[in-house]
Amino acid sequence: MKLRNIFLQPTAMLMAITMLAPLAIIVVYSLLTRGAYGGVELPWTIENFTRLWDPVYGIIFLRSFWIAAVATALCLVLGFPLAMFIARSGSRKNLYLSLVILPFWTSFLIRTYAWMFLLRDTGIINSVLQALGIIREPLPLLYNDGAVILGLVYGFLPFMVLPLYATLERLDPSLLEAAADLGARPWDTLVRVTLPLCAPGIRAGAILVFVPCLGTYLTSDLLGGSKTVLIGNLVQNQFTASRDWPFGAALSLALMAVAMLLLFAARRNGEELL
Amino acid sequence: MPPEMVLELRRVSKDFASHREVTRAVDEVSLAIPRGAFFSLLGPSGCGKTTILRMVAGFETPTSGEVWLNGQRIDALPPYQRNVNTVFQSYALFPHLTVQGNIEFGLRHKKGTDDINRVRDVLKQVRLEAKASRKPSELSGGERQRVALARAIILQPDVLLLDEPLSALDPQLRKQVRSELRDLQRRVGVTFLFVTHDQEEALSMSDQIAVMNAGALEQVGTPREIYARPRTRFVADFLGAMNWIDGIGVRPEAVSICPEGRKAVVTSVTYLGSFCHIAMTLESGEIIAAQTPPGSAYQPGQTVCVTWNPEDEISCEAS
Fold this sequence. Notes:
The complex is a heterodimer of chains A (274) and B (319).
Chain A: H1 3-30, E1 33-34, E2 40-41, H2 47-50, H3 55-87, H4 93-101, H5 108-119, H6 124-131, H7 145-170, H8 173-181, H9 186-197, H10 199-214, H11 218-224, H12 231-239, H13 245-269
Antiparallel strand pairs in A: 1-2
Chain B: E1 5-18, E2 21-34, E3 38-42, H1 49-57, E4 64-69, E5 72-73, E6 84-87, H2 99-104, H3 113-125, H4 141-153, E7 159-163, H5 171-188, E8 191-196, H6 199-205, E9 208-213, E10 216-221, H7 223-228, H8 233-239, E11 243-245, E12 248-250, E13 255-271, E14 276-282, E15 287-292, E16 303-308
Parallel strand pairs in B: 3-8, 3-9, 6-7, 7-8
Antiparallel strand pairs in B: 1-2, 1-4, 4-5, 9-10, 11-12, 13-14, 13-16, 14-15
């Protein structure tokens, strides 16, 4: 066995144990019957999957897609100028990049709680606006889709910025000069040269943001309140309150299948994924 | 009547600031380029020639001075408002577009029959009709260079700016492309402003050459003037090998070895195919080189006599 293959073994084992085994368990559970106090029992059944066709779940899927799509689009719109700025800031690149990554030093849960302190009725934003006399009643900033999208954009923006930065940084500046030289105004250059050449970065960033947004439950749970039920929350509920593990497993598999399909579609159009 | 000038630089300077230092890249350069000319900016790397080109293109703004194109002052205009086009050193072809897409890039509307015909004409002129739907990555170096040219000339610029466009080609191809480029320039009649550090390139193609050194102009003239009557030692040395004897310059090809003349001892003989390069030391200790026919059989250590025609002497101010 080659040396490099020997060093691969621990990783391969870890992947097998932590990814393939749980996946196999989920598949098995999704085909079993729910136990009275959680857990699973025989007999085998496909009823968990047929239940997915109920329009209630369809609506939740669509809502989750919609929120993930909006969050991804916002990340792109906000992340692109930032990535462009960092790619062009010369010797300060590394400083700005570390600022982008800095939030990862704190737990995502704590950072999401921090947003609650900012947004809630007695939170900082509403208190300040009330103290200044700009508003009388607190604005409904928390517990709605907007708050969920804000939390997602905040949390996943770095995953958009980093791949965009990587492609923009490699972009040959003489191509932008050539476009201007041939009469293209800055906006034309952006649309006709910069964006097409950044397509791989945009695709990678979009996947890195969209897929985790699709499965989110923490952000929607904390910032969306009871009004915003997304697939992630639905799955979580099956394993906790509802004690319907087989259905939760079936839901997770359905979510995974959809995410994989999207990855595959993105891959077919482009040469490489990341 | 003097020929009409299409491009004029009036006392143009450019400073680059980095950290605490300010470097003057171009120092009070004034130039006038006649319409339809093949005009070369020749000089060593770092002499400011590319900076001049970039100021004409609009990628750099002069620190002081004026740039006039067709009687209009352009030094404050952005690149997309100047009727000049550039052939970049590395060509800067758009990798995501085909040859045709690259050539059409600067055309405002592509659907008109006029434009379709123009694209076809230009493709034909650069012999790329068969490769119109290829991507730049599928082309050879020479073909890429022709796409870069085609993309620029289709816009009928007042001046075409060429930034060392032959330096990325292999030496075999370079000589062939020189004459092609010259022919194309004559055929389309566009004014060329050609930047190069290769004196042979400049001499063989240009109507006029401006020699630059350390940000300043040394001399402007026809290739013959520049080579035979250099005004400064820098120009004389940069355009070809030079012997300096008692402050007078004489080119090796003007030095002949004959029965009478100044005595010299041969120090080395280098066979170069079409001629031999003979290095010698004069009695005064000065070094002199001569070119002799390839068949000549001189040996190192041999004492010979050298002479030259006084008409071939070049005297110029020291720089």
